[in-house]
Amino acid sequence: MISPGDVISYLEMCQQEGVSLQRGMNFHLRGDISVILMSLRSNAPYADRIEDDGRILIYEGHDVHKTQETPIPKNVDQPIRNPSGTLTQNGQFYEAVKRHGKEQLKTELVRVYEKIRSGIWVYNGIFELVDAWQEYSNDRKVFKFKLLLTENTERMEEGGESEVELNYNRLVPSYVKMNVWKRDKGKCVICASTTNLHFDHIIPFSKGGSSLVAENVQLLCAKHNIAKRDRIE
After folding, report:
1. CA distances from 97 to 100, 162, 230 (A)
2. pLDDT of residue 155
3. Which of 2, 33, 138, 187 could cysteine-pair with 6, CB 3.0–4.6 Å?
4. Measured between alpha carbons, how far is 124 from 147 in angstroms, rounded to an integer?
5. What residues contact residue 54 under an 8 Å CB cut-off, 6+ apart?
6. Higher confidence at residue 172 or residue 88?
7. Least confident of 5-14, 16-25, 102-111, 215-224
8. Phi-psi map region of 68: left, alpha, beta (phi>0 left; psi -120 to 50 alpha)
């Protein structure tokens, strides 16, 4: 079982979810849990962003597939339905939000993975899908989805995540992750291992340490991360 903050390969991410992840939006991938893949890198295809120190994710919907009829997907509205009339991934996430509002259902749970470089991903934790809308961007309609990092113990248990793990691994913003990865050269700062890495708070978040500065975040392998836990060294 992976924890928020764990650095994993694409293969490990697929193994964790039990499927080959071929798209960024995966509504109810297995059971009631959805999965999205995000990126805040400069060359990312969609305008995702984080707010409120990483607790809120604004995720952009996805474009139509490139075809002879639509050679430039960025020139057309993001679709809510496929040509067959079935809901696209955009549509499924969007309709789930509307059902939640109308029928007072629980919010959808979404596991979020973030790409920090080719083949390298970080598990960001479990979010609740709380809002969705359409807006204009570059003369076309795009979908936006608002997700909130859950701190509800019952919801975390539904998603297979413990309260201890979430509090210890408060989400580190993407720009900090990228700076730390570059500074620590993708290795554990203690033993130089390149496997089973984790973004660790030097001064734990629970003891007042910040997630917002690279100076308080380091890469540790699983062995040294477990050994450290909440101990300030």
Report:
1. 5, 25, 37
2. 61
3. 2
4. 12
5. 149, 170, 171, 172, 173, 211
6. 88
7. 102-111
8. alpha
Q: Of the given ranges (64-68, 133-137, 150-154, 197-201), which has the lowest mean pLDDT?
A: 150-154
As a whole number of angstroms, the distance between CA 222 and CA 204 comes to 16
Judged by DSSP in three states, 60 sits in: strand
Average pLDDT estimate for 174-182: 88
Residue % of the chain over a pLDDT of 70: 90
- pLDDT class for 103, splitting at 50, 70, 90? confident
Helix, strand, coil % (nearest 5) of the chain? 25, 30, 40
Strand 108-117 and strand 49-51: the pairing is unpaired
Helices (H), the chain: 10-17, 89-103, 153-158, 163-168, 174-183, 222-228
Measure the CA–CA gap between 124 and 171, rounded to whole angstroms: 6
Domains of the chain are 7-164 (2.30.280.10), 172-233 (no CATH)
How far is it, in rounded angstroms, from Cα 95 to Cα 132?
9
Please tell me the distance from the alpha carbon of residue 110 to that of residue 201, in angstroms, as a whole number: 24
Residues shown for the chain: 233
